[in-house]
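Example protein was shown:

_____
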Amino acid sequence: MTTLTTTQPLTEDYESLVSAASRDEWLKARKSGVGASESAVLTGASKWGSAIGLWGIKTGRLPDVDLDDNERVMWGQRLEPLVAEEYERRTGRKLLQWGWLLRSKLVPFMLATPDYRLADEPGIPVEIKTTDGTRIKDWQDGAPAHVNIQCQHQMFVTGAPRASVGVLVGGNRFMWCDVDRDEAVIREIVEASRAFWQYVVDDAPPPADASEATSEAIAKLWPVTAVGETVVLPVDAYDWARDLDTAKGEAKILKDRIDGIENVLKAAIGGAELGLYPDGTKAFTLRTQKRSGYTAAPAEYRVLRRSK
């Protein structure tokens, strides 16, 4: 059984700010820098978030992500002690609960809240995870990219030479691995975090990308139009306009090409349901589908799909 302790190992690398058990204080303090899971977003290793959304949270324009009603998170929290116990059993290592927000003394905007630490080596952070059974391939060669980034971030903050991870996959498969410190990855993390944090300091949003998370963040940051308000765009706006026109033109060409090829195939299939390649293998289906009449009028249409 893991043991809760509030005693923090003393090192020259970091200072302990607040316990994660004091959730409101922890969330407030976490806005003063970049956490380990957040650096995975900034380096592109995690799709669960965006730089502009994170900027909105750090600057107070957006609320912290509310995970209280997220069942996946709820089960992860409830299972964490059991997974930690299994880590102890499988590895023969004793864990101490950590759960403090730590700030790097070398780079003060670098923060981390490790789940646990090794009792015999108190500076070694240990992360406990749960994940879907569909993710088992992600763990077969060690920690996946976003978890590796999180561990490297924690090693930078704590000064640790390695970290460790235990994960319960699909509710019935336990796996664990150690993660060695990688200075090249750590430099990438620190630079990505530094660039992002400068946007927070300057109170200017970071560049937007094409991700769905970024689209959602922009919609939340500016949900309504300020009627009558005008903004002067930067000189890059000329390039943006040209690139947008070019992309739309290319998209239309591609759509026309797709439509043309599909029409050739539909005409070749005619009224049949199935089109075969010359060798007799399945090529395409052309089946009738119905659309119910809700906001749109009822309709029937045929959908072309490539056979697998």
